[in-house]
């Protein structure tokens, strides 16, 4: 089966990445072993050669002493035995000298010593002690020079060995750096082969979650990630279809409900006013119940329409507005419902102008005031605060009443979710109020949450970013 990076599985790609990353490391280990082995062999060879040179030098020194003693004894006592001993020492010195001259590489000095050796070998038997002394001294002096040359050669070999070790170490260091860089490049390439499709998958998931345009480019990479990308593409298409059907259902259902509701409310009004004939008490009570149910259904329909319009608004249109004017218009719209429950609004506004979308901001205010009026205690104030903290615009709407459990706070911002606390007004909630607040805050680039404050039992805080535009 032919292996291809385009069709490889994630496991195969990971194993290939590890294998490629290990190749430079294996080469580095082999080079290190080779360099250390060569350095060790070179050190052993130099050490053996140095020991041999030192031994030969010591042997030559000892032979020179023996030769001096033998030729001097022969000069005093001329016997054949002493002559044979002296010649033996001289012959041994000749063999050692040839080995030393072969290794030292000093031809002139070796020739002089060989000449002096031959001169001493030919003439020692016939010379007296006084005549022999200059030859022996010259022979000893040249031997000392030869020994110095040997030691100098040993020092030079030691320096060369040190230089060789330094060069090997430097070469190994450069090879290590090069192979480590190569390993890093291979690791980066392999991680890029895996990270790139993962980033594209993250982009796809974010596009699905934020309802943005799904990327058109096809995902390339490991087989599992490619298949996951195609499944996300199918999921995005399916969600778009469901979203379109949901919007169509909301739009048609809401509009279709408004016409019969209007007719029902008009009929209930005619019956309540007894324009079609007198009604007894029980009939009037039934008509009142019908009228209240029709009003409640009308409010729920308006909330659905408002939620539908919010979903269709793709981009806010911010402008500079006076927060006092927005608050005043909102409070006037809710004045009657607030008065019925004896609630008063305590406003604290620290800003003179805000740069925001007035429609979205009013929806936030309307739903928060309606929520505080419906769930707040009788004859209790509703606190509204608008202020700035660092780079955020904070809007707090608080009221007294039953505190909201911490476990339910995030859930209440989801569509069609209602808390366990009953409303104090005559309208049954649809569970869209706080969801509309959260969606409006999200469209404005912020978010909403429920916080604890010391002056109220319940506080809903909307955090909005401060934009950089300046008022004209």
From TrEMBL:
Transmembrane segments: 12-30
Domain of life: Bacteria
Pfam families in the record: HATPase_c (PF02518), HisKA (PF00512)
Enzyme class: transferase
E.C. code: 2.7.13.3
Name of this protein: histidine kinase
Originating species: Rheinheimera muenzenbergensis
PANTHER family tied to this protein: SENSOR HISTIDINE KINASE GLRK (PTHR42878:SF7), TWO-COMPONENT HISTIDINE KINASE (PTHR42878)
């Amino acid at each position: 089966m032919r292996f291809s990076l385009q069709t490889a599985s994630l496991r195969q790609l990971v194993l290939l990445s590890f294998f490629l990353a290990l190749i430079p490391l294996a080469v580095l280990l082999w080079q290190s072993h080779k360099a250390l082995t060569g350095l060790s062999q070179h050190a052993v060879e130099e050490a053996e050669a140095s020991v041999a040179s030192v031994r030969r030098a010591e042997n030559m020194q000892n032979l020179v002493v023996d030769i001096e003693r033998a030729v001097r004894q022969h000069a005093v006592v001329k016997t054949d035995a002493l002559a044979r001993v002296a010649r033996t020492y001289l012959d041994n010195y000749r063999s050692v000298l040839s080995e030393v001259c072969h290794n030292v590489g000093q031809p002139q000095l070796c020739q002089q010593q060989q000449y002096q050796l031959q001169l001493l070998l030919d003439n020692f038997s016939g010379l007296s002690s006084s005549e022999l002394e200059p030859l022996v001294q010259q022979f000893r002096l040249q031997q000392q020079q030869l020994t110095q040359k040997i030691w100098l050669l040993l020092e030079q070999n030691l320096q060369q060995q040190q230089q060789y070790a330094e060069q090997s170490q430097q070469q190994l260091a450069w090879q290590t750096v090069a192979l480590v860089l190569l390993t890093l490049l291979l690791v980066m390439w392999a991680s890029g082969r895996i990270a790139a499709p993962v980033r594209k998958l993250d982009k796809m998931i974010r596009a699905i979650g934020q309802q943005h345009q799904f990327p058109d480019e096809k995902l390339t990479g490991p087989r599992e990630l490619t298949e996951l990308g195609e499944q996300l593409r199918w999921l995005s298409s399916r969600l778009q279809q469901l979203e379109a059907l949901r919007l169509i259902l909301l739009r048609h259902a809401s509009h279709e409900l408004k016409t019969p509701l209007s007719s029902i409310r008009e009929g209930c009004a005619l019956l309540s006013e007894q324009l079609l004939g007198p009604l007894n008490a029980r009939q009037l009570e039934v008509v009142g119940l019908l009228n209240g149910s029709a009003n409640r259904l009308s409010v729920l329909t308006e909330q659905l329409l408002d939620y539908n319009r919010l979903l269709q608004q793709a981009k806010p249109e911010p402008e500079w507005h006076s927060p006092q004017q927005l608050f005043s218009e909102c409070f006037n719209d809710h004045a009657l419902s607030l008065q019925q429950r004896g609630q008063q609004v305590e406003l604290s506004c620290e800003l003179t102008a805000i740069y925001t979308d007035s429609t979205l901001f009013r929806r936030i205010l309307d739903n928060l005031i309606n929520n505080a009026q419906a769930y707040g205690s009788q004859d209790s104030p509703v606190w509204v605060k608008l202020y700035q903290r660092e780079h955020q615009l904070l809007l707090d709407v608080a009221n007294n009443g039953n505190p909201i459990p911490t476990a339910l706070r995030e859930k209440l911002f989801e569509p069609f979710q209602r808390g366990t606390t009953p409303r104090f007004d005559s309208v049954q909630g649809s569970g869209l109020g706080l969801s509309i607040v959260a969606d409006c805050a999200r469209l404005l680039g912020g978010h909403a949450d429920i916080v604890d404050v010391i002056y109220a039992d319940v506080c809903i805080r909307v955090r909005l970013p401060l934009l950089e535009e300046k008022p004209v």
